[in-house]
Amino acid sequence: MTEPTFAQTGADLLVQSLLSQGVDTCFANPGTSEMHMVAALDRHPGVRSILALFEGVATGAADGYARMSGKPAATLLHLGPGLANGIANLHNARKAATPVLNIVGDHATHHLEYDAPLTSDLDGLARTVSHWLGRALSADEVAARTAEAVAATRGGPGRIATLVMPADAAWSAPSPGAVAAPAPRVAAEQPVDEDRIRAAAALLRRHGAAGMLMLGGATLNAEGIRLAAAIARSLQCRMAGQSSNSRMQRGPGIPRVARVPYPIDQALAFMQGVRALVRIGAPTPVAFFAYPGKPSMLVEDGCEVLDPVPEGTHPLAALKALAAFLDVDESDAPDQPRQRPERPQGALAHQTVAEAIASTLPDHAIVVDEAVTTGRLQTYEACVAVGPHDWINNMGGSIGYGLPVALGASIACPERRVLALVGDGSAFYTSQALWTMAREGCDVTVVIYANRSYAILQGEWKNMGAGEAGRSARDLLRLDRPDPDWVAIARGHGVPALRVDDAEGLCTALERSYATSGPMLIEAWLD
Fold it and tell me: Residue limits of the Thiamine pyrophosphate enzyme N-terminal TPP-binding domain (predicted)?
């Protein structure tokens, strides 16, 4: 289909502007106010449009797509309530520094004064998760606003931009002079601060084994991890990563990165004795929640904390500068040979599930980890060197991210198998993602950890010292009466599924899934 030489409507201009800025994928849940944008997407097939049955799936999929592709995806959402439905996964994307562009339709400008049923404080909702917020009040403003929005997603590690598009701006024709708009400049990266680099090296050298180099963000690719391991070996300090990370490359030849545990007592033990912390691309670690009688900060009193990465500087550039200052390179990192555990046998438990996944994981898989309780560290540790793969975590803590992020990752990398590890409680939040996986033929294997409970909340009940749980409390922490049937749920969404209750069956099911194109769900039945 030949692209038109000019935009017939503001909506056409929007889509053309997206394409000119390199945004070619849109996860959509449109409504009446977005019909002209849907029509424009139809006229400009260069943008791949993917329907999500819930806005939280659209926003989570955009997050997963951007994490793996390195470029923003767009979402198309319906007014304030539609944006509100997607906010939880936009929160996760914001915490992961993922670039996402939200296009949110609004009532026509002349209709807003009548306070129609779907009128809301759309801008107020958007501000809670957006680094940039703008409106195209007429078709003439569309090109410039779209370019600003895309540029905003690329300002810094990755940002959320929300462009509000009133219906009349979409259906109106722009004047000829408004068709073209230059792309705003993205702020240039700032140079490394050499004084901070020298200070970081001196601090870690002075404390030795009581020092820790903590990685996050863009430092967790293969190059960054090897450089950090070489630095840690040279200075005889510890190397670690955040509890959750947006994307980590792992496998043979990439040193193991120990992560700060989620449970508060384990996290405090992990950080015990650290007297100097140099963090590159990572914040100072804090407890996920406040607990009675326990500290919020995970670093001990008196620990010296240094961030050698000033605002605007790429964390990987700072890590490279630190390695160069110490005269080390990737070849100085300790070796990580390929290791794959034996296929496990027996009942499904935390360790046997981890071994089943590690013993069968295909090379170059993308693992999306929302296993929450069952798979928290066992599976991560078991897979450390089984083969090259990427590991994705939920950095915002809002559950319901695993299935949509797996969907988006598969759209970004269709040649790779995606493995989504999801607790049954989490999966209920965005189960609609299964339908889109089936429709798009995504090579996604979903493992549902079916323990019929919010097991993490049962643990948090104890951590909070909330006392003895009565029947009402227990009912709020369990998923039973009735037990969910994930095989039926998946098949109802068009995804083949089966249930397994032992380690041998899980291994067989995983291998079957990897050998079959398209999505498959495996319900791992845990006692």
Answer: 9-113
